[in-house]
Design goal:
By secondary structure, this protein is α+β, with helices and mostly antiparallel strands. It folds into three domains: 32 residues, no CATH class; 131 residues, no CATH class; 91 residues, Chitinase A, domain 3 (Roll), CATH 3.10.50. The protein is built from eleven helices and six strands. The protein starts with 7 loop residues before the first strand and ends in a 12-residue tail after the last helix.
Length: 257
Amino acid sequence: MMSLDQVVALQIDDQSFSLETVLRSSVLRGSFGAIDDYISAALVASYAEVNGIAAGQEEIQEAVDDWRVENGLYLASEVANWLAERALSMADLAEFARMKALKERVRHHVATGKVERYFTEHRPRFEAVALSQIVVGERGLARELRFKTLEGEPFYVLARTYSIDESSRLAGGHIGRKERAQLPKAIEAQAFGAVPGTITGPLEIDKKFYVIKVEEVYPAELNGDTRARIERIVFDEWLAARRKVANVRKPPLWTQD
């Protein structure tokens, strides 16, 4: 049996690099997650086997189709060439798709009966607001601009004129819909619980001063998107817990200690 240092992973000009060399470099860089991904896949497969969960042929085909779109492979010949260039077969692709479909089945199974409770216990996490902002470098200017908005000057005009935040200035300060976790604590504390139209500030964040307008408020709602998000959260938590108790042993090549 060939060792990893005897397997050529790639060649550059006239120089060859072994699979062991490439893997060691990848591990040290912290950019090679294949072994961890496979551990997760193995744990999912084990759970599926114990619980009698299987992926249907239609689900597997859908996973194959998704993979082809992601890789821009629309013709059968393109798929065949892509696989051949990497010494892979259609059987490898089918197994990859089966595992991907199986993961979706297991995710749903693990989360069944837990979504509603999670939503109830973490409702604030799924609340959102739509905001506009004016960002300046001086507290006095921020205070003056807030007064101007309260006196009736259009917020978007002041944002375009004075804001130093290039990502939102041309949009009149509009930064769109944001959930709590997406906002700095100072803005979160002022925005959530406010009514649409509320203008607050100055708020100092990283030596800049913000005037914030609450454009819209979105209460938490257990709709399809939220349900899918919670299923993913519950599954990820389950998988992380499963990895901690699983008897996983990695050869020295895969560890950085």
